[in-house]
Amino acid sequence: xxxxxxxxxxxxxxxxxxxxxxxxxxxxxxxxxxxxxxxxxxxxxxxxxxxxxxxxxxxxxxxxxxxxxxxxxxxxxxxxxxxxxxxxxxxxxxxxxxxxxxxxxxxxxxxxxxxxxxxxxxxxxxxxxxxxxxxxxxxxxxxxxxxxxxxxxxxxxxxxxxxxxxxxxxxxxxxxxxxxxxxxxxxxxxxxxxxxxxxxxxxxxxxxxxxxxxxxxxxxxxxxxxxxxxxxxxxxxxxxxxxxxxxxxxxxxxxxxxxxxxxxxxxxxxxxxxxxxxxxxxxxxxxxxxxxxxxxxxxxxxxxxxxxxxxxxxxxxxxxxxxxxxxxxxxxxxxxxxxxxxxxxxxxxxxxxxxxxxxxxxxxxxxxxxxxxxxxxxxxxxxxxxxxxxxxxxxxxxxxxxxxxxxxxxxxxxxxxxxxxxxxxxxxxxxxxxxxxxxxxxxxxxxxxxxxx
Amino acid sequence: xxxxxxxxxxxxxxxxxxxxxxxxxxxxxxxxxxxxxxxxxxxxxxxxxxxxxxxxxxxxxxxxxxxxxxxxxxxxxxxxxxxxxxxxxxxxxxxxxxxxxxxxxxxxxxxxxxxxxxxxxxxxxxxxxxxxxxxxxxxxxxxxxxxxxxxxxxxxxxxxxxxxxxxxxxxxxxxxxxxxxxxxxxxxxxxxxxxxxxxxxxxxxxxxxxxxxxxxxxxxxxxxxxxxxxxxxxxxxxxxxxxxxxxxxxxxxxxxxxxxxxxxxxxxxxxxxxxxxxxxxxxxxxxxxxxxxxxxxxxxxxxxxxxxxxxxxxxxxxxxxxxxxxxxxxxxxxxxxxxxxxxxxxxxxxxxxxxxxxxxxxxxxxxxxxxxxxxxxxxxxxxxxxxxxxxxxxxxxxxxxxxxxxxxxxxxxxxxxxxxxxxxxxxxxxxxxxxxxxxxxxxxxxxxxxxxx
Lengths: 453, 453
Description:
The structure is a homodimer. By secondary structure, chain A is α/β, with parallel strands linked by helices. The first copy, chain A, has a domain at 4-12 and 67-109 and 233-445: Rossmann fold. Helix content of chain A is 42%, strand content 16%. Chain A has helices at residues 42-45, 51-58, 68-74, 86-92, 113-125, 139-151, 161-166, 168-176, 190-198, 206-219, 232-237, 239-252, 267-281, 299-302, 345-352, 363-377, 383-402, 420-427, 438-446, and strands at residues 5-6, 16-18, 63-65, 82-84, 97-102, 130-135, 154-160, 180-184, 223-225, 258-262, 288-294, 304-309, 318-323, 357-361, 407-412. Chain A has a seven-stranded mixed β-sheet, sandwiched between helices. A four-stranded parallel β-sheet of chain A has the order 8-7-6-9, sandwiched between helices. In chain A, strands 2-3 form a two-stranded antiparallel ribbon.
């Protein structure tokens, strides 16, 4: 059997992030102030983010240099390997070639440190002492806790309660890195208390946890807020993934026909897809790009493209995105990292432009794909990227039916070492799929703010 | 900050294992048949192991070729990275240079797949259908389950009961790879039933679990037994670790003054140390080598060097090794992978020859070292290698006191993603250290078989 792993040397690690805003055929709609409904300026974001990240959020420059100290930390696990899934191909008996970029090699076990490290770095540069954030599945919280430990910053994490309960070892990992973890909704913020007053048994949502983390950051001068996905600068930082994949495939002499990523807020998806999409927008090779979301949180496939709040308590600006409404609390599925009512504005924008094909998958099929992957490739995927695995397998089987060989690339954005309860529940038949009725979706969308975009 | 990670290309991966038996100043004492007390021959081992592994067990050849199919699977994660622990050095403010080889990058999360894969391979070549084994902490069981999945073999794991309870997600991982996991002592074997009849609340031990796995293998023609440490061929397979470290340090232009590994049965220790020890025995550079064991299972530091059984039910041959007696059930400490009453004969032999310095450490100090490591280097060590981390930190601090710069190399043989309960218990102050009295040790040793070696 031939080589299965493709590496780059550290010299070949990207020295700049790729900003797709430079290549978009239409610019992103502006972000609006929640009080005035007018476009916001950098000053409006200053209570939340340090200046360097605000600049990155709105930058139109194509390449943005990665600071030397961030590169040094990246080098602990980057460049990450690109794998050819030869055993999976054999098992499926497909003529397709399947490649996956494996981001589980980072110390926190996912792609999230790619942005946690620069976010901590720029905050530290700005004199910030404490970072607040939310986490769903816990991958983002672990990554920020890791970055905080390395850069000597306090970290306070509001963890969605259902994930906090499902994954005791995830918050233990954050504690081990020195972070404080609070199950959300909590009594520590007025946003949390308001939810608990109405729904004492609330299992939480990313939208609620964001409200809590933002509230604390705004009220404390020494604190700033960090987000693990959705925002432009977060997606920007993840483009090291796709840039490396491009270089790795170039070395093999290959190029993807199809690129697949799972989407919650959109950061791992954008990370792998945007460098290829940018190349296409600049006149390069065509490529089909698929964004896979959970059917239990069908933002891209059943939501509206409209202005909405990023959080439940309406503390954030209004952004134009695919959304199910900021009051939407998705089913407590195991892919906690994909349970967000909205979607990154950049991802929404390219879906709107027809450059990306959205798809929804139910969790039972995804876990089945995850088990198949573990038993062939040997790596246990986190529940989130099982959505990408499922779509990759389906595409490969379509190639088999059609008798065509295509090159499929997907992002295996994290391992499932902290998600074994999900696999236990799946194998014991305790999981179910959930399909929202038209009425449920319509009710959720009825709450959208009346803003003309 | 300079580079922290040193990689090799796949071409530089060792193509042969290093067999220290070729370079020993005195040969290993023979293995004896339990019934006759006479040296055993290959035929005596055939019920347990396939011919290729029996040959490796007794081989005196220096280099033993790694089969192409095994190399292909190794390449999924090998060569593994060598890290310079610059952040830890800074934190300790030591003039010492600390390097660590990181084996947690394997899909099973430890060094164990280095031997699980060839063991599964040679068994498959011999027509075996099912592998039986025991596991303590679960790292070995996970590794064999992984290898079984890739090579399409059934796997049955007897897991020490205390670990089975402490680490539910470890056996879930094995299930995910398709293995069956039974808490030991169990009702499935006469060895297990005998223990349970006498001690219904037995938390188990590696010695008991070995008896169960051996019993099943001997009784079923389609099954063979696999061991994750102790035996010569197992230690042999692990030498890819030290060979890579040698090549990686050579690229940097460095050479260790001190090499450190934790020891249970001795396999990760031998893996990193033997290639350097072999070079020294062939007239190469001197190097101090430290084997760190838990004070709660002080085989090398308080046991006897004597003939003993490898298991509790006395189904295995008699081997000369450091032992606390096959009836010894060590305290239920969290470093389950180090709770073995004996020690690999090769490791015992080189300790006996004065080539290796044994040391015992208590678990509280080890967990403290593990936390320091996680917060500086970002990687959470499994409880077992925290023993090596502790010794490395102590050596580095000694360098600081003495004002000398030494090069320290240790084996970080696995991550702690499945060991977070241990870190939770440690941080909550629920762990304790245990020191055996002279009487307890003497009583355990009194049960040693009367064999002249």
